[in-house]
User: Fold this.
Amino acid sequence: MRRRRGLERRRPSHDRWLVSYADFITLLFAFFVVMYSAAQLDKRRAGQLATAIQTAFLQRGSLPPKAAEVGGLSEQGTPENSPVGNTEDQELLAANVRKALAPEIAAGDAAVHQSREGLVISLREVGFFDTGSAEIRSNSRPAFGRLAQALQATHREIRVEGHTDNVPIHNSRFVSNWDLSTARASAAVRLLIVNYGFDPQHLSAAGYAEYRPIADNGTPEGRAANRRVDIVVGHSYSN
Assistant:
């Protein structure tokens, strides 16, 4: 009897595997927590990289605006996740521009709205250019001057874009809509530099011809809306 009781006392416990199993589960859980955290961090970094690349291309005019940004010349709110941001400074600038161009906006010759790229000031051909001409009309220079003064108070990158309708042009100076749209943008930039002292390093000009319409080219009203020069006020820069 004494020997049998000793054997029973030395018999190993069959429940010891639970300790190892619990350790294994704990380590496995910790492993997946670390992997999940790393995956989330990579997603955030990838998203930040994608946003930065898209912002850079948009700022330089290498990507077309999205459909939500070209709904027309009416005033619009700033979309969510705008790279520029709906800051108080941006809102103040928009208010000053609207005040400077109040007569032209009321007449339908100009419009101001926010986009993902920044503040967009549209100057329609009917109010600022003669048909087939790249130079701003003399009687529209005062309005352009008021706009320039409003923009002088801000330190932001400015891109001037020329746009046309889809009717081909061919005159003694311009052989295509590309030429006309680019010439109008360049003429506006030249005025900002020569007449109003804007820093050329923070200005750019681009011509898009008929390929970025904001209205239907199938109607006279739509074609008139598409013939415009857009002044896009983008990111701030350091002095």
